[in-house]
Amino acid sequence: MKLMDDERVVEVKSEYDIVIARAVVRAIAKDMGFGLVDQTRIATAVSELARNIVVHAGEGIILVREIIKGGSRGVEVLAIDQGPGISDIELVLRDGYSSKGSLGVGLGGAKRLVDEFEIKSAPGKGTTVRIVKWLSVR
Amino acid sequence: MEALDGLKKEYAEILREYLQSRDETALYKVSMLSRKFQEARIDPDRILEMHLEVFNEIVEGMPPKKAINAYNAGFEVLLELMMGYAVAYREYVEMHKNLYEMAREFSEKLQEANRLQELFISIISHDLKNPLTTVLGYSELIEARAEDEQIKEFARKIKKAAEKMNELISDARTYSKLRMGVPDEEFKEKSLKEVLSEVIEDLREKAEAKGVEIEKAYEGSEETYPVLAAEFLKNVFANVIDNAIKYGPAESKVIVEIKDEGDFWKVGVRDFGEGVPDDAKEAIFERFVRNDKKGIKGSGLGLAIAKTGIEMHGGRIWVEDAPGGGSIFYITIPKSQHSDKYRKSAKRSFLGGGRRVNLFSSCGLRRALLRFRRQRQPCSRGRPSEGS
After folding, report:
1. CATH for A2-134, among 3.40.50.880, 3.30.450.20, 1.20.140.10, 3.30.565.10?
2. Spatial distance between the Cα atoms of A22 and B252, rounded to a whole number of angstroms
3. Looking at the whole model, is its pTM more than 0.90?
């Protein structure tokens, strides 16, 4: 689904969709001029957000777009689900927490890979995670 | 390396898949695999090596142009693996940082508890001494003035018990004071020979009462055996020689020898008693452990005091079976010119004001703890106001 020129939405329902989300964000990041290492960082982080949706909420969407703020360009990703939500956000972000029973790097790990990381959630209200990686000008 | 072999196989499969398909699925798979490498504690350099081995196997025989393309794609796979690995590794480090923090807090609490305990012993023992002096004094007075023989006998018994108690309190006090550390300036140049002579002189009466002869066997008898010693060193030898007299049979000998052993003087105290069983050879130097023997009196602190005391001098104490029966207690003490070196290393195992914390076997952690404490409490020797 394509909303605007630079906005993409990926519906996430299965592990296969995680791969799609990764591919989409990677393609956008590549087009924007992110280097291979940053592409990999973003893909790894998005991978984790998507996995989180599949494992905890069952389904949700991933929104990817380019943003511009104060002359900097960046890629923004929103991961939204209507799942059970998180009661203790701090605990979830703690290192090693989500590694229990899953193979991913966890939300804490994802946070480390990007420049901005925001999470909004409450029990029964679903979860929204927003991440941004800025394109550093060299 | 079995873990690596298994992971290598999985990795090779994914790499092959990606080189053919260039599909994101393979990258996702390798990202998932990365944590397993971290969990198996496989070093990053081994992973790079593994990648090259696997990669070379795959591209062997490929036309050059195709091989170059494959090289770039292979790099993407490796990058994905290392990215996931790095995140997992950072998590691992963070987790250990948290554990370290917990251990540090625990150790600080423990040290504080130890300090309070030593302080408590020191104060209590001091407070006990005054009433005890009264008991001693009056029982002596009764013994001297009573006309009734039986009352005299009762008074003697009271006096004996009070003396015993006095001794116990002194031991407890000495031990707790010692645990709080001895300042550097109390270490002075002394002759080990003289220290031993004083100790032996003090104990001569006790030995003679039991018919025990104390024999000196010093190697190079013209030597003075210089050491850097605190006043306390006397107690170390007094406790050991006193023990030898106590545990040896009546009408026997105690042999005190000194030998030159490299950086150290080695003192041996030999008795002709029953010896110390192997399973007690270390335990007797712990607090309140005594190799039980009926009719032997003591607080059980003597050897613990000796051990703590000699370790503060940078030396060691241990016991061996003497050939032909009995035991030899060996005590080493650094020669005065080497004292600083050995005392320093002994001090390192005493945290803060001289309390030993054997919580951590890792030397690095202990040192880090020591540094941390120094920063927060600059050099507190933890001596409470004395005689208070």
Report:
1. 3.30.565.10
2. 88
3. no
